[in-house]
Amino acid sequence: MMNKKINKVLLLCSGALKIGQAGEFDYSGAQALKALKEEGIHSVLINPNIATVQTSEGVADTVYFQPVRTDFVERVIEKERPDGILLSFGGQTALNCGVELYEKGILEKYGVEVLGTPVQAIIDTEDRDLFVKRLDEIGVKTIKSEACGTIEEVQQAARDLGFPVILRAAYALGGLGSGFCDNEQELLVQAEEAFSFSPQVLVEKSLKGWKEIEYEVVRDRYDNCITVCNMENLDPLGIHTGESIVVAPSQTLSNSEYHKLRALAIKIIRHLGIVGECNVQYALDPRSEDYRVIEVNARLSRSSALASKATGYPLAFVAAKLGLGYGLFELKNAVTKTTNAFFEPALDYVVVKIPRWDLTKFHGVKRELGSSMKSVGEVMAIGRTFEEALQKGLRMIGQGMHGFVENHEIKIENIATALHEPTDMRVFVVSKAMKIGYGIEQIHQLTKIDRWFLQKFKHIVNIDQQLKEFSFISTFIGTMEKTELLEYIESPEFVNLLHEAKVYGFSDFQIARALGLEVLMSMEKAGLTVRSWRKELGILPIVNQIDTLAAEYPAQTNYLYMSYL
């Protein structure tokens, strides 16, 4: 049951506008405030960002547009005298501030209770040295590493571990200060940068090329645990998860691998004593079931927002309620309204998250992707197949692309180099490589992207090539009667191909461009022409089926319709 002594709660949100915070945690903070309001608890919000949902009128009871810094927060605590504080809903900034408030004795001084995950559990996950020791206690493998406080210690650790290594800054946001080093010279440059962000730097043995897998796990104070969603990065380890295309649920794990990592995630969250939600990130050897835990985020993250929207499970809302003392079995799922929060979602669709960069706005910026985050946003797409979701997502990222194929030509000086050294255009480089004859194995060796994903990419290219074989249809438009033209359009081969293209995410314009219609008419008219053909051939979304499902599951209506658009 809820802690009845809690009447006023302070919520720390993220800091000022920059990559990795601010608007990215608007979802989690707004959901937490919604949960507090539902319980009749007075909410006090500290958030310096005006253009957010959570700072809108009526969402929080009291709002302070102040920096999320210890000195400012202490003054708010002194004035408002909250009974409790929530630290897990404002990303790394709120977490760091909460730890500082705890260590300086400010929370104890004013009698403010930390709701949800205890501060010591947060410290155990943020201090890299402590983190490794805590997981060693339960026999969970972590990446071989050494925590360092000086550049000399970093140099010695790198020599002990052997190059290549990766440097990670403790308590850092979005992978700031992290990077891979292949030699002493790169190490010194990276170490100097890492120490500019944090007093502690972790030197880890590089596992570049391993798969990167994430699990979103929820635990209540009664030790009940569920995994809400697992996700897989399309790119292998070495590229920050915020820079990678992410797929939910995972697509390339065996049943044994999936359940092994799931059991480990639950074992970890129980041992650390996290109450609410956390994100467990793994490196998984693609050649065996060997694994390493990369990190545990004892808070809501960007991945949590994706998992919530992908599954329909309101992670932040539930996490806030658990912080107030509820058990999972006591809460209803706010989306379905029928099941309780103790049920794990099961997906019969595929969700793809695609990052969005704005690197073209800046002259001289490095376009290479790595272990620190450069993306400024992301889109989420839902489909019945990976190919469909991927193509929908690529159309939405605002780069003028129409999907995986049939885009404007991109100029690449060296395809092999562009595949080996990833940039923000990597997925389109893969597309171009396949079109000019690169094989799946060749691309796999250069990118280390799993062959399963590459086979799906190749499937899209194959459909595109089959459509091009029907480009002769465009030569007949305007030279023959509609009835004669329909003989070609209504042929079983073309009808089946058109249906397959729509199932795997081709837009009408993509199909029109592949058929050569764009040469004869405007882009808009070309797409409308294919659309009119589809309607005449009856190649349409299964509207009756959607309506039936929507009536049965009204809370999921938007998801159902989105998956068929």
What's the CATH H-level superfamily name of the largest domain? ATP-grasp fold, B domain
What is the general shape? globular
CATH-derived architecture of the largest domain? 2-Layer Sandwich
User: Helix count?
Assistant: 23
Structural class: alpha+beta
Give me the count of strands.
16
Here the CATH topology of the largest domain equals D-amino Acid Aminotransferase, Chain A, domain 1
The oligomeric status of these chains comes to single chain
Label this structure with key terms.
about 575 residues; alpha+beta; Rossmann fold; Dna Ligase, domain 1; D-amino Acid Aminotransferase, Chain A, domain 1; 4 domains; seven-stranded antiparallel β-sheet; five-stranded parallel β-sheet; 23 helices; globular; disordered C terminus
Overview of this structure, please?
By secondary structure, this protein is of the alpha+beta class. It is 42% helix and 15% strand. The protein has helices at residues 26-38, 70-80, 91-103, 106-109, 119-126, 128-136, 151-161, 184-195, 255-272, 302-311, 315-323, 386-396, 415-420, 426-435, 440-447, 451-468, 472-476, 482-489, 492-503, 508-515, 523-537, 543-552, 557-564; strands at residues 8-12, 42-46, 62-64, 84-86, 113-114, 145-148, 165-169, 179-181, 201-205, 211-219, 225-233, 246-248, 276-284, 291-297, 350-356, 377-383. The strands form three sheets. Strands 14-13-10-11-12-15-16 form a seven-stranded antiparallel beta sheet, sandwiched between helices. Helix 7 (151-161) packs across helix 8, helix 15 crosses helix 16 (451-468) and helix 20 crosses helix 21.
